[in-house]
Amino acid sequence: MELLLVFLGASITNNFILARFLGICPFLGVSKEVPTAFSMGLATTFVMTTSAMVVWFVQTFILEKFGLPYLQYVAFILVISAFVQLTEMAVRKISEPLYKALGIFLPLITTNCAILGLALLIPLKGYSFIESTIFGFGAGVGFTLAMVLMAGMRERLAFADVPEPLQGAPMTLIIAGMMAMAFMGFSGMIAM
Amino acid sequence: MSKGRGLIVTTSPHVRDEDSVTKIMYNVVLALLPALILAVRTFGLHALWLIITCSVTALASEALAQKLRGVKVTINDGSALVTALLLAMSLPPNLPLWVAVVGTVVAIILGKQIFGGLGYNYFNPALIGRAFLLASFPVLMTTWEKPFVDAQAQATPLGLMKMEGVATPYSDLFMGSVSGSLGEVSALAILIGGLYLLYKGYIDWRIPLSYLGTVVIFMTILGEDPIFHLLAGSLLAGAFFYATDMVTTPITKKGRWIFGIGAGILLVLIRIFGGYPEGVLYSIILMNMFVPIIDKYTVPTVFGEVAK
Amino acid sequence: MSLWKEFAKGLWDENPVWVLLLGMCPLLAVTNTAVNGLAMGLATAFVLLGGGIVNSLLKNVIPHKVRIPCYIVVIATFVTIADYVMAAYFPEVHKLLGLFIPLIVVNCLILGRSESFATQNPVHYAISDALGMGVGFTWALTFLGIIREIFGFGSIFGVQVLGDWFTPWIIAVLPAGAFLTMGIVLAIFNVLKSGSTSEAECH
């Protein structure tokens, strides 16, 4: 039950994009088409879940054990870069067309603040190993959800007569604002 | 309204001539009249001022926006008026007029015009206005009045139920002596309007049925009083007037079922488990977000097409 | 290429926020008040400068294949310094900015400038560019912070500027308000810029 709450909190009520402002760059950049957005979301979810696990290990068995809190940022970012490299290689092996479709966005997951943010939140919340993994997974799911919803809307926006100054980023941001307003409906729900 | 088959380049409404949009819109206005008249009778002159303020602001902002966009001004097609009335219906009766103005401007400009006007917005404009006001002025937007008595505060039936476990008699909810927003007052008034629209074929029966049906089923499962939840708050208004907005709801029949069921589940979650006593607003705008995806993936296969 | 031009471009024509659309995460998160926006801008500018200088000086030493991780480690080091300095001397602001200080590490602006400019040019140009981008970023953040603070609190830098008649618009300090404000301001800037021919890059 606890784990379910962690999952729902990470994916819905404290959605990483719409509530925590993490992962805005890919959200603005990769959310133009549904299939691409979904693939990006999947890749990100994978990196988030696996990084969460490794980060927990690093935090518990290295940083805390040897008393090196000041190396936290450096250590985490290195872990994340390594995992993104891994994911990139895996995707390339599994599906060449997918690799081509995601293009530059894969290495960009490294600079996705959502991942580093996730890494930093885990020691802050003091999650156990299982909780960290679920948290990472939930964060990824929520991220994917927001991306896919936005992509669905932006796909249709191509046919609309949006005033010129609003085209592109301003419109995406305003839609994101409305999505954030909609998600406010979930507040207070985690005390289930 | 055309059914979803073949070459759809834009979303509904699919207008062959401007008359059909106008006809629908003014019939919606007609359907809203019982509820509006009752609201004014229950809450007095200020309610009337709110309705007028919203309407005038809506027409003015739409005209201004269309002028700025360099397109034809179409305020007489009735859609801005409908948005205004729907927004007014969702406001507390003693709301300061300037707040109503802000909400209406947001609803028309942000909720509709920046998307390119009628037919292109994703979120129900009136509900966007309301969501904006609720987020900006939470206290003003949740101060309710006792019906028929001036300036006396009273919680809504849903609020009473959630916070204090106090039930309200069905007759009060049905006939209209409860507190709430202008449109929440009388289930009967809403039903009259809603059934009229159904009878005339201006709204699709699938949405109210799936929305209300899902709520009744899940409320019963969870041990709550389904009749109470049906009559209280703005569920009926939501089911007949907000969730049936043809622009922001799915085109396909299957899609409409999904929309109604999804909204119903969300409503039950919010009313029972969430922080707010009422969830109609959020249940609908949350489902609005899914409509492009729903439409995309529930398109019926054309005969002869190979399934992907 | 002049030192002044490299500096000035970051202020408007190639403003990291309004034109390049970089650094969005901290932008939306910390601009709920003017002082937070200013602090984040300055912290980022510091890292931009430090990281840019070091990366530029080391550009011939770092092997090409591992350059990105190396840049990131340099940047992370400067962020750590900034973090500890802020915690020591400005504890309140440090607490308010919270998670977003370490997130400066992954601010696409900093890595981007290191990769595309600092390591392609001599150090003095790198300094110019970093300063320009830093100032541009800071004023953009502070500007947005001021707007949101006025609507959300009726104050600027904590000083009440709107009287008692004003009812705060809470949404301004909520995530939804951040998105909406940024979108609207960006649209307004696009209108202002529609005379010039600069392209808005969708990052």
Secondary structure tally, helices of chain C:
8
Please state the average pLDDT score of chain A.
Answer: 82
Q: Give the domain tally of chain C.
A: 1
Seen as an oligomer or otherwise, the chain set is heterotrimer
Estimate percent helicity of chain C: 55-70%
Q: With helices defined by DSSP (H or I, 4 residues minimum), what is the helix count of chain A?
A: 9
SSE sequence of chain C, one letter per element: HHHHHHHEEH
Given the helix and strand composition of chain C, which structural class is it?
A: mainly alpha
The portion of residues assigned to helices of chain A is: over 70%
Q: Which sheet architecture does the biggest sheet of chain C show?
A: 2 strands, antiparallel
The whole-angstrom Rg of chain C is 18 Å
Uncertain residue ranges of chain A: none
How many structural domains of chain A?
1
Q: What Rg of chain A, in angstroms, do the CA atoms define? A: 17 Å
Let me know the number of strands of chain A: 0
Average pLDDT score of chain C:
83
Strand order of the largest sheet of chain C: 1-2
The rounded distance between the terminal residues' Cα atoms of chain A is 10 Å
What percentage of the residues of chain C does DSSP assign to strands (E)? under 5%
Given as residue ranges, the uncertain stretches of chain C (5+ residues, pLDDT < 50) are: 196-203
How far apart lie the N and C ends of chain C?
26 Å
Features:
heterotrimer; B: 308 residues; mainly alpha; Ammonium transporter fold; 61% helix; globular; C: mainly alpha; two-stranded antiparallel sheet; 8 helices
Structure, described:
The complex is a heterotrimer of chains A (192), B (308) and C (203). By secondary structure, chain A is mainly alpha-helical. Chain A has one domain. Chain A contains nine helices and no strands. Chain A has helices spanning 2-13, 24-29, 34-64, 72-94, 96-102, 105-108, 113-125, 129-157, 169-183. The mean pLDDT of chain A is 82. Chain B is an all-alpha fold and 308 residues long. Chain B has one domain (18-297): Ammonium transporter fold (Orthogonal Bundle), CATH 1.10.3430. The longest helix of chain B is centred in the N-terminal third of the chain and has 26 residues, at 18-43. The relative contact order of chain B is 0.13. Chain C has one domain (3-193). The longest helix of chain C has 31 residues, at 123-153. Chain A binds chain C through residues 18-25, 28-29, 70, 72-74, 77-78, 81, 107, 110-113, 115-117, 120-121, 124, 164-166, 168-174, 176-178, 180-181, 184, and chain C through 21-22, 24-26, 28-29, 68-69, 72-73, 76-77, 79-80, 83-84, 99, 102-103, 105-108, 111, 171, 174-180, 182-184, 186-188, 190-191, 194, 200, 202-203.
